[in-house]
């Protein structure tokens, strides 16, 4: 009997330069297709899918650990950049509301992760991180630092991001009769940038990530730049600058780092778990919509603002939709940011707790 996937084309007898060429070509093709449909994180998704195909074709490209760590530092700075003074003011004014609703969402997601782990659909900590309602890239990286299977977490997180973004776009379109269309990932790559501020940002990203990694802080490669960057920016001591070409390079490195770890067996396992993943995503979206409905009853918030604020999608894609939807943007972004930060700092303890009791 043939091993599953044994008929898949192999790069085993090809030179390394061919492996890298195929990887780059596939990544660009998939990223262009995703970008044509304006899917979120198109470049990261394209790089991840291209590298998965190369990995199961016995490809040999590898991303160094240092490059992977520094890329996490850039993501940390990206999150820190989103924490603006307007968001901090909104968080301070409505902190009890943010904390209460976020706690409900986290508990609901943890419950779904528990069910997936109990039924052995996904391993314990992998199920918890896959269901975590934070930023997809952040949750994927955090899972790797805390014993989860980063490959399966990435599949679940980005599947949810795509589904939730499409639903949020449809809801916004029905509500305001227009569609929020994000710009192409290939547009405005080389806009004017302050090289001094960029150098400071890269120094923080690389230095903070390497220090966090060297000190063996769980998730430190992402958390150290995030905490330092947000603190410095909030106090007016730094202006985080991340031009599109830096983010593009970061997304490609992260996508390749995740995808090249796949094996044929891991791909089969992910395929078997897809129906359960879809069901858990549907439950999460329904739960968050119910919470949004409750918000409109408990406070003076319009339904679209409440829906986007509680939507369990990517922070960047929700920001794009909110910008053109005429909603309370500081409230939406404060809610999304608060949830991301709470999940980042409570996720490891929650994952350990659930894994211990499974």
Task: List the SSEs and their pairings.
Layout: H1 16-36, H2 42-56, H3 65-81, H4 85-93, H5 95-118, H6 124-131, H7 136-145, H8 150-176, H9 195-214, H10 220-234, H11 244-259, H12 264-298, H13 303-310, H14 315-323, H15 329-357
How does this model look, in words?
By secondary structure, the chain is mainly alpha-helical. The chain has 2 domains: 16-61 and 94-182 and 243-357, no CATH class; 62-83 and 194-241. It is built from 15 helices and no strands. Helix 5 runs parallel beside helix 15. The chain is globular and about 65 Å long. The relative contact order is 0.18.
List keywords for this structure.
single chain, 358 residues, mainly alpha, 2 domains, 15 helices, 73% helix, globular
Quick overview of this protein structure:
The chain has 358 residues and is mainly α. The chain has helices at 16-36, 42-56, 65-81, 85-93, 95-118, 124-131, 136-145, 150-176, 195-214, 220-234, 244-259, 264-298, 303-310, 315-323, 329-357.
